[in-house]
Amino acid sequence: MSIVPRERAQDWIARWDRQQEGYLPDRETRFTALIDAVEAGSGRPDPLVLDLGCGPGSLATRLLDRLPEATVVAIDADPLLLALARAAHEGRPGLRFADVDLRTPGWTSALGLDRPVDAAVSTTALHWLDEPELRVMYAELAGVTRSGGLLLNGDHMEVADVAPALAELERAVHERATRRRFGAGMPEDWRQWWDAAGADPVLAALRDERERRVAGAGHRGSESLELSTHVTALREAGFTEVGTLWQNGHDRLLCAVRG
């Protein structure tokens, strides 16, 4: 039984979604494009999908809204976000949350998979892995993904290392889209959300657990921002086709097809 009441969890997740939109004015459009790709590319009505860095379940639940026969294994190592997800979505058919750290080799063995993965999805999460961790994670992911299976990663990915002028224009396009979307005022930011959640007495034990497990894990911020980092790591892992399916400025939906 969750220590967080369902209604309280739902309120915090709704607030999470609002603050995320401050960084991603087309967040729902990107979700839609990603789920379109899973639906079109999986080749079956009941795909097995891994949600990498699922947070409070925003993508996983939207995916199941569209594909109710899918099985989604939603993976994260943040105890507070996982607790919110489990409290809000407990008992939902097809959805299972896994407390697993993608940076730990062997993470796939903890998932209890009974068939190859049709699609792995992620939004605004994998940039937390540094380049060596990302390479190892993608290689292990490839080992459980069927031939023709997909990796779909929506995130800010820069091209500054190969095209600095283009990178500057991409950031400018994104900034202008953000100003149009939030002309009346930006929502709270990531830090404000975490400060508020940490001050909620219902979440106090989870906040303390998060500080022990996540905040001290050596993250310095966005580690893998370059598009080339992801493309190279995916190709080395055995994903033979890699490209951008959707884009607004430097906000991209990167797709890779397993060979």
UniProtKB/TrEMBL annotation:
This is Class I SAM-dependent methyltransferase. GO terms for biological process: methylation. Pfam families: Methyltransf_25 (PF13649). Residues 49-149 form the Methyltransferase domain. InterPro entries: Methyltransf_25, SAM-dependent_MTases_sf. Keywords: Methyltransferase, Transferase. The lineage of its organism: Bacteria, Bacillati, Actinomycetota, Actinomycetes, Streptosporangiales. It comes from the Bacteria. Coiled coil: none annotated. One of its GO terms (molecular function) is methyltransferase activity.
